[in-house]
């Protein structure tokens, strides 16, 4: 099979980890007789420096013409001073909007070999997916900063959802739950927010409207309680579905359960467009360019690309199993290395080598 992949290395460690992703994907291609054709495109700080914009048209066009997009990370202190539309993050929001990436899937899994890395001691098995709505709500609603009638500086953001936006993300969560244990928790703030009351109503209508969903166990949870339950008993969750802002915060909270941000992949999916696959972490300027980054989140994101965009289940499993074995053998990048347990400290490239060796 031949597939076109747009690669956005971005800034900081984004560049290093996408190199490892390509090396691992090339090994998969060799093993299964596939051909992956990569096109490198600019986004984020590097695009601001070279082209004066965080999201060049060319990048959008190449992504749209590809079968999938791999993204490293964007951002860094160098670009933190510009106005909002000239910051690397504007590239991130822009590409999500341009590709219609409404569904963000973030698996949060604690590997057995890293059980001691979990901040919660004696917690039960952690293996959940957070399904976050990605192009609605407060991050995309009307906003303004202004001087009010009394001369005070004021600002507002609008959290707006339409029924169809909630319907389509609810369906993603239910379909995913059918392949897992079938336990869906819908997170909202329906005791206070109108948009959350609509969220709850629509999620339940979608649930009731499909016979296939009957074997799913759906429950609602207020976001403040969800934040607490995630650290109290994370093992209770299988699929969490929630709106954009709540999902942003809860998925970062959940990420520490696996020991390091460097372990967490994500997939952003559209209805009729390409998917984008990226680690949950940022560009880590503190370790950029030093061969210290953990490439595993990027490698697991590549596995999600193989599974969800290319329908290559076995190839995806190969990468996931290789990562599991490499961790079991004791290979550790700095973020997951403790030094007193017989494990071996390796760099980004060596971690890539180890995964390739297992493949
Ligand atoms: P960060 O995720 O880049 O780093 C947080 C901490 O985790 C750092 O100590 C870093 O060294 C470590 N870390 C992160 N990923 C790692 C990896 N793969 N291996 C080893 N250690 C890793 O978050 P930050 O420091 O808050 O943000 C840095 C920049 O990244 C900012 O400009 C921010 O806006 C941007 N950012 C981008 C994205 C994205 O591109 N999707 C997401 C979050 C933050």
Structural notes for this entry:
With 359 residues, the protein is α/β, with parallel strands linked by helices. It is built from eleven helices and 14 strands. Helix 5 crosses helix 6 (194-208). The structure holds nicotinamide-adenine-dinucleotide. Nicotinamide-adenine-dinucleotide binds at residues 13, 73-76, 89, 92, 261-262, 278, 281-287, 293-294, 297, 333, 335.
Task: Give a short synopsis of this structure.
Helices cover 39% and strands 21% of the residues. It has eleven helices and 14 strands.
How are the secondary structure elements laid out?
Elements: E1 2-10, H1 13-32, E2 35-40, H2 45-51, H3 57-64, E3 68-73, H4 88-98, E4 103-109, E5 127-133, E6 143-147, E7 153-157, H5 163-178, E8 183-188, H6 194-208, E9 217-222, H7 223-232, E10 239-242, H8 244-255, E11 265-269, E12 275-279, H9 296-308, H10 313-328, E13 331-332, E14 344-345, H11 348-358
Residues 13, 73-76, 89, 92, 261-262, 278, 281-287, 293-294, 297, 333, 335 line the site of nicotinamide-adenine-dinucleotide.
* Quaternary structure of the protein: single chain
Helix content: 25-40%
Our count of helices gives 11
Walk across the major sheet and give the strand order: 2-1-3-12-11-4-5-10-8-9
The residue ranges in which pLDDT falls below 50 over 5 or more consecutive positions are none
Which cofactors or ions or other ligands sit in this model?
nicotinamide-adenine-dinucleotide
The average pLDDT value, as a whole number, equals 95
Topology as a string of helices (H) and strands (E): EHEHHEHEEEEHEHEHEHEEHHEEH
Distance between the termini: 19 Å
Structural class label? alpha/beta
Sheet bearing the most strands, described?
10 strands, mixed
Count of distinct strands: 14
Global outline: globular
Beta-strand content = 15-25%
Nearest-angstrom radius of gyration? 20 Å
């Amino acid at each position: 099979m031949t597939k076109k992949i747009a690669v956005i290395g971005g800034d900081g460690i984004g560049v290093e980890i996408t190199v490892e992703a390509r090396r691992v994907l090339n090994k998969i291609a060799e093993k299964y007789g596939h051909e992956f054709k990569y096109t490198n495109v600019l986004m984020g700080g590097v695009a601001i420096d070279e082209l004066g914009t965080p999201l060049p048209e060319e990048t959008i066009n190449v992504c749209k013409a590809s079968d999938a997009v791999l993204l490293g990370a964007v951002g860094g202190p160098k670009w933190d001073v510009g106005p909002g539309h000239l910051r690397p993050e504007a590239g991130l929001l822009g590409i999500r909007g341009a590709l219609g990436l409404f569904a963000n899937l973030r698996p949060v899994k604690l590997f057995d070999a890293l059980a001691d890395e979990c901040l919660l001691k004696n917690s039960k098995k952690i293996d959940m997916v957070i399904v976050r709505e990605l192009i609605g709500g407060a991050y995309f609603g009307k906003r303004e900063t202004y001087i009010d009638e009394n001369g005070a500086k004021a600002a507002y953001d609008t959290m707006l959802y339409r029924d169809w936006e909630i319907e389509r993300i609810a369906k993603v969560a239910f379909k995913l739950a059918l392949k897992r244990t079938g336990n869906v928790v819908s997170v909202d703030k329906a005791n206070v927010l109108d948009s959350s009351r609509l969220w709850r109503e629509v999620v339940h209508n979608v649930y009731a409207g499909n016979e296939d969903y009957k074997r799913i166990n759906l429950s609602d949870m207020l976001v403040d309680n969800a934040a607490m339950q995630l650290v109290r008993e994370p093992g209770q969750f299988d699929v969490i579905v929630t709106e954009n802002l709540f999902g942003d915060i809860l998925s970062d909270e959940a990420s520490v359960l696996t020991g390091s941000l460097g372990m967490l992949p994500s997939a952003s999916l559209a209805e009729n467009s390409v998917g984008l696959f990226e680690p949950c972490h940022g560009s880590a300027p503190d370790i950029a360019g030093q061969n210290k980054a953990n490439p595993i989140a990027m490698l697991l994101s590549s596995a999600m690309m193989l599974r969800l965009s290319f329908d290559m289940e076995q190839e995806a499993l190969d990468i996931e199993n290789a990562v599991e074995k490499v961790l079991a053998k004791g290979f550790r990048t700095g973020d997951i290395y403790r030094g007193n347990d017989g494990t071996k400290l390796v760099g980004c490239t060596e971690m890539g080598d180890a995964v390739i060796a297992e493949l």
